[in-house]
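From the thread on structure requests for the teaching lab: each student submitted one protein with a one-line request. Submission from student K.M.:

"Model LytR family transcriptional attenuator from Luteococcus japonicus, tokens only."
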Amino acid sequence: MQVTITASLLRVLDPSFRVELPALRRRSAWEPGRVLHVLTNHLPQTRSGYTLRSNAILRAQAELGWQVEAATRIGYPVTVGHLGNPEVQYVDGIAVHRLIPWVMPAEEDERLAAYARLLDRVAEHRRPSILQTLQPLIGVPIDHVAKVDFDGFKNMTDALGGVTLKTDEGQQTMNGTEALKWVRERKSLSQGDISRGQRQMQFIRAVLMKGLSKETLSNPAEVARFLDAGTQNMVVDDALTTNKMQSIALSMRNVGSNSIKMNTAPWTGVDTGPYGMSIVNMSEPQMKVLAEHLSNDTMGSYVDNVSPKSGFGG
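Reply posted by the TA:
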């Protein structure tokens, strides 16, 4: 197979590529309980396992009382031969925004920028809030949000000189590419996504411990290199500046591994949802216990005896 790399694609792949999005700078205006899903394609124009699953998730959230909407990729469904579509199409009573430009840009960077701006307009109008998924369950405000992509994951790991993880073969030091593959694996693990989550928590702990080590924090150049590697491929809230990240890191310089607690949300088993999708059932009583410990800063004594330690529960 021959792949053509164009100049515009190289511009998109450049870590410095950015699109200014006004709505994303106004996070304080987001409305609680409102969710916007960004989809590649959707019903009724494309009927597949992915679109059926996406539609099932949208319907299930709507039935929980959330204000749910979706938006499909730029140009869809015109790009698959369906013309004359309204700007907003309703599927099972849920609004699906069609991001159709007057003229589809020919270059990859221009097309991605146009896609982002069209989606930004929907976000500015609807003002969704993804944080409401977790905050009502734990009753504790989430102060900061950071999202890192695969390149940022690999770069941050490599900037630390790799991380050491406990595997089935013993302790192994992995570089960014190796660690990314390890934390994404799930099919070969005994509890699938649950086991994958445990791997990811182990990785985060390893990064924290190495990033907070005296060797790293005592060397300003190492701290700057680590933060630079992550922030090039990271999206954060407005208040989480680079200086704030450095301040948080320095304030944690005396924090030991035993003082860092990581937990998954308590669950009772895997089931099939009302529209055929696979779901994990949350333990509501145990979630209340977790919320109480978080609120009282007593996570050191928190114990989860509810979530299955093997298999997928009942």
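TA comment: Residues 23-28 have pLDDT under 50 and may be disordered. The CA atoms of residues 268 and 307 lie 5 Å apart.
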